[in-house]
Amino acid sequence: MTNKVLLVGDGSVGSTFANDLLQTTQVDELVICDVVKERPVGDSLDLEDITPFTGHTNIHAGEYADAKDADVVVITAGIPRKPGESRLDLVNKNVNILKSIVSPVVASGFKGIFVVSANPVDILTTLTQKLSGFPKSRVIGTGTSLDSARLQVALAKKLAVSVSAVNAYVLGEHGDTSFENFDEAVVGGKALKTYPSMTAPVLAKLEKDVRAKGGKIIAKKRATFYGVAMMLAQIVSAILTNREIVLPLSAPINGEYGIKSDLYLGTPTVINGTGIAHVIEAKLSENEHQKMLTSADKMQEVLSGVNID
Questions:
Q1: Residue 269's closest CA among 153, 162, 133, 113?
Q2: Is 56 one of the catalytic residues?
Q3: Label partner for 37 (CA 20 to 30 A): which of 232, 259, 278, 301?
Q4: Model-wide pTM > 0.90
Q5: Which one of the listed residues 56, 60, 174, 289 is annotated catalytic?
Q6: What residues does each domain of the chain span?
Q7: pLDDT by residue (tens digit) across 167-193?
Q8: Chain-centre distance of CA 280, in angstroms?
Q9: Is the CATH number 3.50.50.60 carried by domain 4-141?
C-alpha cells in the first residue's frame, strides 16, 4: 500500500499545504498540477529539499490523468477573493474552473476522496459531488474549520487561556451567513457564557472581528493561506492514516437541523480513511438554529442559479 495525493492548484494555499502535509504525514507520491506549468516543476524541486528531514516522497508535476491511482485529490485551484468581494461573488468565476478539473479527474479512473478548499467552499464542494457523481462521503470541503480556528484564537486571547482549552465552533456557510456557536461553547471545561467578561457586546465584537479577519489579512498581504493549508493537511493526514478526527467541515446535510436542501454546509464532522464517517448535528439554541437555516437558504439560493450542464 502506498499513499498518493494529487494537488490541483499550486498557489499560496496549495504550496503551503504540500509543505505542511509532507512535514506531518508520510506520503509516498505527491503530484502537483497547475495551469501555470512551470510552477509545479519548481515547487516539486523545492519540496524535494525537505525530504531528508521528512522521509522519501516522489514529488513531481503532473496531469489530471495521474489521479487514476491517487488516494486523495485536493482542489485549491480557483480565482482568489479580492478586497471587498464576498466568497459568493466568486461562484460564477470558479464553477467553470471546477468543471475543467473534476471531469478529467473522474475520467482518469480516480476512486479516492475529493477534498475541496477553493471558495465559495460550500458551493464548490456541493458541485464537486454533483459533477463527480461520487458518494457524498467521498467529497469533503474545508468548511468553517478556518473560521473556527480564528474564533478559538480570539477567545483564547480574550480570556488569556491556551487555545487548546477552547472548544467553540463557527458553523453554517464559510462566509457572510456563518455564525458562532457561542451558546454551547466551552472554555477550560466551563460554559463560555458563565465567564463574567463574556457579555453580549463583547461576544458581538468577537464575532465581528472573526468574520473580518480574512478580509483584513487579504488587505495586508493579498491572500490568506497558513490556516487553511494546515486544515487541509490535517484532513488529508486523517484520510491517509485512517485516523478519526472531528472538524467543522463542509459536509452533506441530510435532514440535520431540519434542512431538506441537498447541499454541503459547515457542521462538526467525523472523518477517517473512508472520508466522511459521520455528520454531527451540533446542539444549537433556537437563535442559532435559525441562523443555520438562514445559511442553508442562502446556499440553496445560490445553487439554484448555477448551471453545471
A1: 113
A2: no
A3: 232
A4: yes
A5: 174
A6: 4-141
A7: 999 999 998 899 999 999 999 999 999
A8: 17
A9: no
Query: What is the rounded distance in angstroms from the CA atom of residue 70 to the CA atom of residue 92?
Result: 28
Buried b (16+ CB within 10 A) or exposed e, 23-57: eebebebbbbbbeeeebbeebbeebeeeeeebeeb
Rounded (10°) CA dihedral 283, 284, 289, 294: -90
Cell numbers at residue 71, please?
488516494
Per the CB < 8 A criterion, the answer to whether 166 and 187 are in contact is yes
> How far apart are alpha carbons 283 and 256 in whole angstroms?
11
Task: List Cα–Cα distances, 139 to 61, 66, 217, 249, 305, in angstroms.
Answer: 24, 19, 28, 11, 22
Cis peptide before 120 (omega within 30 of 0): yes
pLDDT, position 1: 67
Name the amino acid, one letter, at 45: L
* Side-by-side strand order, sheet with 190-191: 166-167, 186-187, 190-191
